[in-house]
Specification:
408 residues, alpha/beta, Spore Coat Polysaccharide Biosynthesis Protein SpsA, Chain A, 2 domains, seven-stranded mixed beta sheet, three-stranded mixed beta sheet, 14% strand, globular
Length: 408
């Protein structure tokens, strides 16, 4: 028995519906499972779907609410992936399982994937790049070193002892250290798979251009218009069928956008992609269900509605044994009381996401920091200033800021 699966929170339901329908269209007789990552207990909410729903509470996490406190929504969705795959193998009698990110659409049978598994591969991965990059656009080769060699929006496994070992190892690493934390070399579930080809036998690297076409490899791949199904022209060989396209970073409402994660190409500059993106956005609109997509995630607030900050999550993760056996989301519980005393949480409005790239160098506060750094260099000298920078790099990792907290 062969199956495919994905992981979503309710807000991504339309994506999962499009993916499931596209996969099952090209793989009749297969099954498709969707893990719903949310604080939900009623699976019948998703009755009648083309896919088979699985609730987060069903996959056997030892400390579900602790993991949900440690990680934000992106981290939790990615870090439960190997546990979900282990659950499917152990409960559904499956021989081969393909994982696909929800923002993927399948355009032809995944024959190269299943051929690799049938021929003995324990796992199949696709690299972000198969030809070098030689420009100044994003993402760069350095970005891929930062985020991971292989794109874990796709991975496939065959039932065998080596797969059991690999999934157990991967799940343990994700649940313990699945942070999106570039300063420490971590990036959720994806970065760990850099190690897999060296640690485990039978890890196949699938380089076919029709598999996992996405913004990060558009410099080496383009679509050819054909009457039946799309073909991919590429720098490494003859044209091949488009197996699946990964619409990572797409904004469904922005008809002109390609991906928020790249500036190498725009949709206007890639006429070969116009129809593909237009059709995909139309599919998302057709599969939108505002009622179900508005279901609360449930792990972003304490029980009284107080918004949980990333700082609170990181401090909890660093000292999780201290609150083991307690519900960290309980507003009157020990962790919530600790978080309020230490001012790790404040109010019911979630802060907007931001990165260092959004800081304005002309902002007076930023300029004040720069002046303080210049003064520190003059006072400390270059060698002690370098030590200060190393300490600041350490303390800038939120998990390491527990040094300031009262541990009594």
């Amino acid at each position: 028995m062969i199956a495919a699966c994905t992981v979503i929170s309710p807000n991504y339901l339309a994506f999962a519906r499009v993916l499931a329908a596209s996969y099952l269209e090209h793989h009749p007789g297969n099954r498709f499972f969707v893990l719903i990552v949310a604080d939900l207990a009623d699976r019948t909410l998703f009755a009648g779907e083309a896919f088979e729903p699985v609730l987060l509470s069903e996959i056997g996490l030892a400390d579900l609410r602790g993991e949900a406190m440690k990680y934000d929504i992106l981290e939790l969705n990615t870090n439960v992936k190997p546990a979900f795959l282990r659950f499917l193998f152990s409960t559904q009698g499956l021989e081969q399982v393909v994982y696909l990110d929800p923002d993927i659409c399948v355009y032809s049978p995944l024959e190269p994937v299943f051929a690799a598994l049938t021929n003995g591969a324990a796992a199949v991965l696709t690299p972000h790049l198969t030809t070098p990059l030689a420009d100044d656009f994003l993402p760069s080769e350095q970005d891929h070193l930062y985020n991971g060699t292989y794109n874990l929006g796709f991975v496939a496994f065959r039932r065998c002892p080596e797969t059991d070992r690999m999934l157990a190892w991967w799940s343990e690493r994700c649940l313990a250290l699945g942070f999106s934390e570039g300063r420490t070399g971590l990036f959720v579930d994806q970065k760990w798979m850099n190690l897999a080809p060296g640690l485990f036998e039978g890890v196949a690297i699938l380089r076919e251009a029709g598999c996992n076409m996405a913004y990060w490899n558009l410099h080496e791949r383009s679509l050819l218009a054909v009457e039946t199904s799309p073909m991919v022209a590429n720098a490494n060989g003859p044209a091949v069928p488009l197996r699946f396209f990964h619409f990572s970073g797409i904004d469904p409402a922005d008809e002109s956008g390609l991906s928020r994660h790249t500036n190498r190409f725009t949709l206007a500059a890639r006429p070969d992609l116009h129809q593909l993106f237009s059709d995909y956005r139309q599919l998302l609109r057709q599969h939108t269900d505002e009622r179900l997509q508005a279901l609360p995630y449930g792990f972003d607030r304490l029980s009284d509605g107080t918004a949980i900050t990333r700082l609170a999550r990181r401090i909890y993760a660093k000292h999780q044994p201290r609150w083991r056996g307690q519900d960290p989301f309980e507003a009157h519980g020990k962790f919530a009381g600790f978080a309020r005393r230490q001012r790790l949480v404040a109010g019911k409005s979630a802060p907007a996401k931001s990165t260092w790239k959004e800081f304005d160098p002309r902002d007076r506060r930023v300029q004040a920091v720069h002046r303080a750094l210049k003064l520190a260099l003059r006072v400390l000298g270059p060698h002690r200033y370098e030590l200060l920078m190393r300490y600041l790099a350490f303390i800038s990792v939120l998990r390491n800021q527990s040094v300031f907290l009262d541990e009594s």
